[in-house]
Amino acid sequence: MSAGTVATGVWAAVLAGRPDLAGVSLVDAHAHIGPWYNFRIARPYADGMLRTMDACGLHEAWITADASIGPDFRLGNALVAAAVRDHPERFRGYVTVNPHEPAASADEVRRYYDLGWRLVKFHTGTHEHPADGPGYRPVWEVAARLGLHVLSHSFPSAPALAALAAAYPTCTLQMAHAATSPLALAPYYEVCAAHPNVYLDVCGSVLWRGLLEAMVAGAGADRILFGTDIPFIDPRPQIGRVAYARLPAATLRDVFGGNARRIWRRFGLPNGAPTKEPAAPSS
């Protein structure tokens, strides 16, 4: 199958064991692009990712460059911009920011906003700064003014997430890797109940048996976003884990892509991303 052609159904309705999921169009709301410094990633760039995405029916990926969460956020954002430009129907770009350069990061968000980008990424782990820390505050203020979607890896605590959701109600907030532990999610369900702008994503290399069912019951089926970490991780195991949760097809359709598409539709933009190049950063 050639790059740019999406397989019908979800990975042949997950090898025919979930035929009720045929025709689902997957949106990966937590994906990456590019190499990482301390382990090999097979086919880490757009063309290689599309081969994998086509093979398993993954239609659209929201991506951040590994360079951005590491040493150079501008370089990484430019790599994402090239993928979005070349494959506007398949990739949406996160503007990844660096809290140690707060003013430049806020400028970066504004520059890419002018191109139609509406997604912002914090990597609180590699940049060693909490999502509610002062280095992110200028970006939060820009994101709130523009009504953007913010993915954070991750939030210091459920109270911190609640405080940010209340402080920036025009933003939607995505808690990364929520499904990697079955032990501490109950307080986050309470945050989702109190704040309609909060979402939990299932991205990760594990998904504990029964946890997705608990997340849907606790946070609501409309508050869960699908993610795989492609190309860090092959997406097929995660597709299988979600597809075989004990949940009805209508719920899984929301998780697999319906919720992400509703987030994007609120921006009022066409489905394909703009293809202009970003302007040079201001000095």
Structural commentary:
This protein is α/β, with parallel strands linked by helices. It has eleven helices and eight strands. It has helices at residues 11-15, 46-55, 66-69, 73-86, 102-113, 137-146, 158-167, 186-194, 211-219, 236-243, 249-265, and strands at 26-33, 58-65, 91-96, 119-123, 149-153, 172-175, 198-201, 224-225. The chain has an eight-stranded parallel beta sheet. Helix 7 packs parallel to helix 8 (186-194). The radius of gyration is 18 Å and the shape is globular. The chain starts with 10 loop residues before the first helix and ends in an 18-residue tail after the last helix. The mean pLDDT is 91.
In short:
The chain is 38% helix and 15% strand. By secondary structure, the chain is α/β, with parallel strands linked by helices.
Helices, strands, pairings?
Elements: H1 11-15, E1 26-33, H2 46-55, E2 58-65, H3 66-69, H4 73-86, E3 91-96, H5 102-113, E4 119-123, H6 137-146, E5 149-153, H7 158-167, E6 172-175, H8 186-194, E7 198-201, H9 211-219, E8 224-225, H10 236-243, H11 249-265
Parallel strand pairs: 1-2, 2-3, 3-4, 4-5, 5-6, 6-7, 7-8
Helix pairs in contact: 5-6, 7-8
